[in-house]
Amino acid sequence: MEAFVRSEITKGVGTITFFHPQSNSMPGTQLRNLTAEVEKLGKDDSVKVIVLKSEGEKAFCAGASFDELISIKDLETGLKFFSGFASVINAMRKAPKFVIARVQGKAVGGGVGIASAADYTFAVEGASVKLSELAVGIGPFVVGPAVERKVGTSAFCQLTINATEWQSAQWAREKGLYAELFSSVEEMDNGITSLAGKLSGSNPEAMAMLKKVMWQGTEHWDELLIERAGMSGKLVLSDFTVNAINKFKQKA
């Protein structure tokens, strides 16, 4: 299958699905398409709630595409690539609808950021998380504000510093990243259908107001995340990072 991002609307529930054959990793095109779909459904009056999910069973999202990272040769290209993650997070933050994330597998780097930027995240027991950026010579600068907002500074530092170790889905649930945890995908999907159905019948104006209140204090993220993207864009050009990414690719 080729990579895609698509959406559908059913009874007030707008579902966005993304897929990439490399463990649902995110090249720039995917990030731009995902941003566009979130913004589109956010503006659609027929959509009352947004569900964000990926295809496949093993990985929810493996974060940045290593192939694209290794192809970055200048600051402008680096800034543009990492700004893609900034755009997705900001689109989810500013959408006037609640965003529910469905995490059916492991989440790495930017995938943790996407799960954190959702307003309510469902996950299965195998959905471990890892912020691996430091291990390849960069850092979770762009996704950091969303992750730290959700799990707190201490847990964010734990994920960031211990960059090669997975933290369990139970750990993520205890820290507040996951709102609900399920033993099977079927049970999780039933839970999502139930909550999304209830929200689709709720007052859109009230939900939009609540969304704004819940994200109060993040109004500066449009500028902050672009600034952070520049930090990652600079580091990805270093010899250390280039060598580290190549080593990771050889292991994959």
Low-confidence stretches: none
Tally of helical segments: 11
The quaternary structure here is: single chain
Q: Give the rounded overall mean pLDDT.
A: 96
Order of strands in the sheet with most strands = 1-2-3-5-7-9
Quote the beta fraction. Answer: 15-25%
Overall 3D form = globular
Largest sheet: 6 strands, mixed
Helix/sheet category: alpha/beta
Helical fraction: 40-55%
**Extended strand count:** 9
End-to-end Cα distance: 19 Å
Q: How do the helices and strands follow one another from N- to C-terminus? A: EEHEEHHEEHEEHHHEHHHH
Tell me the Rg in angstroms. 17 Å
Blueprint (SSEs and pairs):
Elements (H helix, E strand, L loop, with lengths): L3 E7 L2 E7 L8 H16 L5 E6 L4 E3 L4 H6 L3 H20 L3 E6 L2 E3 L1 H8 L2 E5 L4 E2 L13 H8 L1 H9 L7 H7 L4 E3 L2 H16 L3 H11 L6 H15 L3 H13 L1
Parallel strand pairs: 2-3, 3-5, 4-6, 5-7, 6-8, 7-9
Antiparallel strand pairs: 1-2
Helix pairs in contact: 1-3, 3-4, 3-10, 4-5, 5-6
